[in-house]
Amino acid sequence: EKGGYEHFMLKEIHEQAFTVRDCMRGRIYPNEGKIQLGGLKDFDEKLKTANRIIIIACGTSWHAGLVGEYLIEEYARIPVEVEYASEFRYRNPIISENDIVMAISQSGETADTLAALEIAKERGATIFGICNVAGSSITRFTDAGVYTHAGPEIGVASTKAFTAQVTVLTLIAFYIAQLKEKIKPDAMKVLLTELDSIPDLIKECLKTEEATKYIAQDIKDINNSLYLGRGIGFPIALEGALKLKEISYIHAEGYPAAEMKHGPIALIDEGFPVIVIATKSSSYEKVVSNIQEVKARKGKVIAIVTKGDVDVRKSADFVIEIPDADDTFLPLLATIPLQLLAYHVALLRGCNVDQPRNLAKSVTVE
Ligand code: M6R
Predict the structure, then answer these.
(1) Lowest CB count within 10 Å: 9, 86, 130, 257, which one?
(2) pLDDT tens across 1-49, in order?
(3) Which branch of life, at top level (predicted)?
């Protein structure tokens, strides 16, 4: 049942080229530059006129929500807020009938997320779900939704469910943009063609496993680490840090790279590991200078870079190359080596990768 892999988590990491493909199946038509989301089509008018989208979730699903914020604001031009379900529900939130509240949940059973939806519904919002488990409580409670179709996820640390959530959010961003005519048909063709190629690029990313094994040997005995990213790379830094902390019990903090100078830089001394998402993007130069700041304090830099990169290589201790792609799709690629790195570090530390201590797959307590 583990398909020849040592752990479910490793199997699920390796499945991602297929799960992302499954998630897009029947939904994107690159040649026509069209996108179709059956689950939302009765709500097209609502999506066109919504004032605001509020995304609620916990843990990894909340990180997917942050990616969604970036993509929906960028393409659909609707303001998005991303909330921890547990904070939202206890805060007397201001919600109107023109708001769409979207819950993201792999299990569809997370108690805080469900309770947050109940409040949103009571206050008249339209509520959507992005879930993996068919027929789960959240799917039954919501007005509409989009399934992630990642198949059962057994490893407690979420991997393929995350990339499927990000895929769905990418589809939703493009779908609303299509409805609101924010993306021209030709531009949509280009975007969907690139999205269609992402499963193949994920396969390329899986080839970083050897590099991550090698780096894991080097960092397996650390106690602390910092993950940095900017823009759409920031939620990826958060997710990479969460993976490491969940399964290897190493303290890992994700931070927006530019915030480093406002505090975390004080942590950096000789050998302090900093994992940086430093792929080619509009903020590349800035990230390169963040790396130099870490190196000036003798920290150890592990950088995720775009294939063929030369600048980062000059200063980083380790580089992990991923294929070039538009920033829009970075989360689907850069996440893969971070999952593999966490897995191999945890393995070397003799941790129970599939069932980390103190954690449950679905958190039904409040
Ligand atoms: O089932 P959900 O997506 O609602 O679960 C939310 C979190 O409990 C979950 O993502 C948790 O953070 C995972 N252990 C992350 O790997």
Answers:
(1) 86
(2) 899 999 999 999 999 999 999 999 999 999 999 999 999 999 999 999 9
(3) Bacteria
The C-alpha atoms of residue 242 and residue 248 are separated, in whole angstroms, by: 10
Q: Residue 227 in contact with residue 238, Cβ under 8 Å?
A: yes
Report the distance separating Cα 20 and Cα 219, nearest Å.
Answer: 30
Say which residues have a Cβ less than 8 Å from residue 81's Cβ, sequence separation at least 6: 52, 53, 54, 55, 69
Q: How far is the CA of 16 from the centre of ligand 1 (A)?
A: 17
pTM over cut 0.95:
yes
Question: Across the strands, what pairs with 28?
Answer: 35
Cα–Cα distance, 176 to 266 (Å, whole number): 43
The SS3 of residue 28 is strand
d(CA 350, CA 341): 14
Separation of alpha carbons 146 and 129, rounded Å: 6
ipTM: 0.99
Residue owning tokens 């080596």? 337
For 25, the enclosing helix (H) or strand (E) is: none
The Cα–Cα gap between 347 and 332 comes to: 24
Q: Could you say which DSSP state residue 109 is in?
A: -
Q: What's the angle, vertex CA 59, arms to CA 114 and CA 170, rounded to 5?
A: 85
Question: Which residue ranges of the chain lie beneath pLDDT 70?
Answer: none
8 Å CB contact between 52 and 80:
yes
List ligand 1's pocket residues with C-beta within 6 A. Answer: 58-61, 105-107, 110, 113, 156-158, 246, 359, 362-363
Between the alpha carbon of residue 325 and those of residues 39, 60, 144, 219, the distances in Å are 28, 23, 31, 28
Q: Could you tell me the distance, in angstroms and rounded to a whole number, from the CA of residue 2 to the centre of ligand 1? A: 21
**Coil, strand, or helix at residue 193?**
helix
